[in-house]
Amino acid sequence: MSRVTQRAKKKPAPKRTRKTAGPRVAVPKKASNWLHAKARDTRRGHNLRSTFLSLGLALAVFLVLGLWLSGNLGRSVRSVKSYASAQLIHAGFGVSHINVVGLELGSAQQVRRALAVEMGELVFAVDLEAARNRVESLGWVKEASVMRLLPNRITVKVKERRPFALWQKDGQVFVVNDRGDIINTAQRSRAIFRHLPYIVGAGAAKAAPAFVATLARYPEVQKRTRALIRVSNRRWTLKLRTGADLLLPEEGVEAVLGRFNTKAKLQRLLDSDLARIDARSPGVLWVRAASVADEALS
User: Fold this and answer.
1) Residue 194's pLDDT is what?
2) Dihedral (C-alpha) 46, 47, 48, 51: value to the nearest 10 degrees?
3) Which CATH number fits domain 165-297: 3.40.50.11690, 1.20.1740.10, 3.60.60.10, 3.40.50.1000?
4) Which of 58, 182, 264, 295 is the most exposed, having the fewest neighbouring CB atoms within 10 Å of its CB?
5) Among the residues of the chain, which ranges form H helices?
């Protein structure tokens, strides 16, 4: 058989078909590949700054993640904070001076106590807003500002409430404001406050502002009054400049004050040498001269 015939009898080889490739799936780079790439860049001297920065950030992330997973992150943060605070204090940022300015009558010691800042405390750790609120909680402080002066100073600027009256209680005399809060003792400087109302007795400081405003509407009585005495925290007795006591009722005070303010006869009574004028009974005055029994006047 000829060679040509043999070739013709051979079956043709099947055609190979190419399989179509499926969609490519993006595979994230492994951390090891990333590290190898960064190491390779470092050996070749490429992008050294960004490489070291990336490695540092990665190390920090792994460290924080490890502490968080182990439950020690909070304790580690506290330790770092404590160490940083100690170093700052050692560097001179601990509170060593607390200055109080703007005082005329108030006590710097009270302000420092309300401020609640300890000597040696980190100056950056002082909560200025909270400290200001504590100082303003003192009744005699109208406004306050707390400032941090680096490296180691806290300054408190105080604006006081105006003095309203002198209050005698248990043998001591205090300057009080219009809320009845004690500003300071006035034993050594009473002459400065001679123009202020003089009030006496328990509860007088709180009740006096309203009564002083009432008494101011009756000038003939007011100018003859030397002191206001609070009795049983219920009513008032006026100590007159003559030394007599004018006993006022618990209710209907303004009616009594109005009578004394408009009637010349009663004003002469206020100027007379008496020990006591009792106006507590409606429509009747009881008067007592020195060493004489009470006498009723209609």
Assistant:
1) 81
2) -120
3) 3.40.50.11690
4) 264
5) 3-9, 31-44, 48-70, 73-88, 108-115, 128-136, 204-215, 219-222, 253-262, 264-271
**β-strands 245-247, 276-278 pairing:** parallel
Cβ of 3: how many Cβ atoms within 10 Å?
A: 7
**Given the structure tokens 């709180």, which residue do they identify?**
206
Residue range 176-229, pLDDT digits in tens: 988 888 887 655 555 678 889 999 999 999 999 999 999 999 999 999 999 999
Tokens representing 290? 């020195």
pLDDT band at 296 (very low <50, low <70, confident <90, very high): low
Q: How far is CA 175 from the centre of its chain?
A: 23
Say what the alpha-carbon torsion angle 211, 217, 223, 225 is, to the nearest 10 degrees.
Answer: -20
Distance CA 44, CA 259 (A): 108
Q: Give the C-alpha separation, 92 to 120, whole Å.
A: 9
Structure tokens at 171: 């043998």
Distance in angstroms (rounded) separating the CA atoms of residues 60 and 97: 39
Architecture of domain 92-160: Roll (3.10)
Residue 131 burial (10 A CB sphere; 0-12, 13-18, 19+): buried
19-41 confidence digits (pLDDT tens): 544 445 444 445 556 556 655 66
Mean pLDDT to the nearest integer, 143-170: 92
pTM over the 0.85 mark: no
